[in-house]
Amino acid sequence: MSATWVFSPAVFAAQPSQLSFRIDEGHNVNSFVREGDVAAHLLLRSGELPRILVAFPAGNSGVGLWFEPTESPITWNLTAPPRPFTARDKQGRALNGIEFAVEVNAPRLKFRGAVLSSVRVLRDFELSGTAPPEVLEEPRATGRFIAWARDRLDGAAGYQLSIEAQGGTRISAEGITSVANAPLRLKVWALTGEPPLTPLDRMLTPAAIDDARARNALAFLSYQEKFLAGSWRFDTYFGRDTLISALLLAPVLEAPAIESAISSVLERLAPDGEVAHEEDIGEFAVLRNQREGRGRVDTPVYDYGMVDDDFLLAPLAARWLLDDSRGSERASRFLAGQGDGVPRGEMLARNLVWLVERAAAFAEDPRAENLVAIKSGRMTGNWRDSEQGLGRGRYAFDINAALVPAALDAAARIHERGLLNEWLDARQRQTLAQAAPRAKIWAEKAPGLFAVNIDGGRARASIQSYAREAGVDGKAALRSLGRASLAFHALSLDAQGRPVPILNSDEGFRLLLTEPPVDELARTLTAILRPFPAGLLTDVGLLVANPAHADPELRREFSRFAYHGTVVWSWQQALLAAGIDRQLRRQDLTRDVRVQLEHASRELWRVIGNTRAWRTSELWSWSWSKGRFHAEAFGRPGADADESNAAQLWSTVFLGLAPPGAK
After folding, report:
1. Are 333 and 345 in contact (CB under 8 A)?
2. Fewer CB within a 10 Å sphere, N or C end of the chain?
3. How far is CA 85 from CA 33, 65, 644, in A?
4. Beta bridge partners of 630
5. Alpha-carbon span 103 to 279, nearest angstrom
């Protein structure tokens, strides 16, 4: 493939950065830059499995260099932070990227492999050590320089990674060494030819919280074309992430930002109205289209395999178009506006009609088998989208007890207001007229199917046993339970409609989007806010799962090393905090329940405050020593199942939330 070999910084032109920030977590140094056509996330991985990786929002592309395991842990030092650079390839096409300098306290590093392609390809290489042969490129070494460069598989402008050895450092096709065991010193350039995205100029209203790290992360992940789910691993559109983030951030987002979020989802709807979960773009689209017989073309391919996102669009649309005065004033113009030649109103109508029809079976016969199941042949369907995330269940609690009734209610309200009349035919109007009665049936009947009740003696025995298994002190947990029985909603139902008895944090969806019976609020909050392992509360945050009452195999799968196990997801804490705040605005609360809600809010914000420095991270884990929990970065080699993103879209939602007394 033709490419320009970059061996000199003279080919670049540098400019000062408009957005530059750094986040260090565990073994990872994360440095972000965005300015003009350049947006890049540099990740330097220290430890015994070092790597250099640069991810670009443009085309969800990236370049990465992995090294062989080292005999002892190494540490990268970023001696010159990333600066934006632009260059041209041999055909005169623009390449955008960064230049930076690093030093590492090792006398030698041996190359394991370099990958220049889609972030999706880099993710796979990180996990499996393999990549499609057609994207691999041999390096070219000349003197003090080594470079990997290639065009994209369809011939479009591609990717470059160039390294200059500095000082006493020597470089070859095999690796990097130094004279006299001195630290290695390198200058690096990383570039992509993928078309750049357009940053949003106006993001937050003056009401947003003053949190520099969250503001920076949100700015880096937000563009006119779409919001990015997280960096480095998800530098592109995810429907669920966009919708949840916009729901929680809506009070402090400027109107163009909310409308960009909704538009990006509408423009990726399936013909039947389902919401796209993820998109294959750039070279990953080329690879997939080639594999599926459509040739080497970059036509995007959308994944509609998830279920929860289909029921999140309507609640966001209703809140913006009906409940927010800014949105209601702009509703007609927004809905008449077009994406790909189709009015947004027509797109939204397609989703609302689909979801009301999807909810018909349970409304007519409210049995477990008529709930909304994850799709056939899959183990995932909601935000807990790892293989063990739903405990091998088929019917997720959050989808059925919260999202479906909330979506039906939103569809009913939008239809009653007549906002979509010009895009509805007679059959569709008749369908939407069923939204309100179906919402009532779902809200009344679905949650009870997930009820788990365990008598006090058996609950205490399980908690005590699991505390030993997890290596934590269970005394506080047992005191919090006393002799009472344990009642909570299951994480999911299995194929036979039996509850999977894993205590979980998804009650937050129900509190944010619906109005549960008042007596259920008390039981719900009591269950989840007990100390772990009776509940979900720890001093390093609210865990998203507690398998104390599940079978031994499930308990092993839901460990603190599992992606959706006994770990803390930042946005789930925000979801619950926002849900409690919404319930406190109700007028039908008893005095005792109101007091309990206020206490729950304070307790939750207390543990949120304990890990403020981790707030924009995707998730984190914990360890137990000296009688207390300690927060630990998720992504430890040989232990954790995956790696956390340093900047995660839905972890910026605290910008729209404030603890009690600070509002």
Report:
1. no
2. C
3. 11, 19, 27
4. 623
5. 36
Nearest to 63 by CA among 164, 175, 194: 194
CA distance 556 to 565: 9
Distance between CA 102 and CA 109 in Å, rounded? 13
With 0-12 / 13-18 / 19 or more C-beta atoms within 10 angstroms meaning exposed / middle / buried, residue 197 is buried
Distance separating alpha carbons of residues 56 and 118, to the nearest angstrom: 9
Q: What is the pLDDT of residue 638?
A: 54
Q: Which residue has the tokens 């949650």?
A: 447
What is the predicted pLDDT for the residue at 2?
A: 38
Q: Are 100 and 58 in contact (CB under 8 A)?
A: no
116: three-class secondary structure by DSSP? strand
- Rounded to an integer, what distance in angstroms lies between the CA atom of residue 437 and that of residue 418? 18
- Give the tens place of pLDDT for each residue, 342-366: 999 999 999 999 999 999 999 999 9
CA atoms of 131 and 108, how far apart (whole Å) = 25
pLDDT at 10: 36
Structure tokens at 570: 């930042």
- The single residue listed with the structure tokens 């402008």 is 157
The answer to whether the beta carbons of residues 303 and 240 sit under 8 Å apart is no
Distance CA 104, CA 499 (A): 51
Is residue 129 a contact partner of residue 156, using CB atoms and an 8 Å limit?
no
- Name the least confident of 16-25, 78-87, 395-404, 584-593: 16-25
Full 3-state SS string of 256-277: HHHHHHHHHHHCCCCCCCCCCC
**pTM above 0.90?**
yes
pLDDT tens by residue, 516-544: 999 999 999 999 999 999 999 999 999 99
H helices of 267-403, in order, are: 282-291, 313-318, 325-336, 344-358, 360-364, 397
CA-nearest of 179, 229, 257 to 650 is 229
Q: How far apart are CA 499 and CA 488, in angstroms?
A: 11
How far apart CA 269 and CA 373 sit, in angstroms, is 20
Sign, Cα dihedral of 58, 59, 63, 64: positive
Q: Report whether pLDDT(636) > 80.
A: no
Q: Burial, 337: exposed, middle or buried (Cβ in 10 Å; 0-12, 13-18, 19+)?
A: middle
CA proximity to 4, closest of 171, 194, 166, 161 = 161
DSSP 558-590: TSTTSTTSS-EEHHHHHHHHHHHHHHHT-SS--
Which tens digits make up the pLDDT trace of 290-338? Answer: 999 999 999 999 999 999 999 999 999 999 999 999 999 999 999 999 9
Point out which residues pair with 592 in neighbouring strands: none
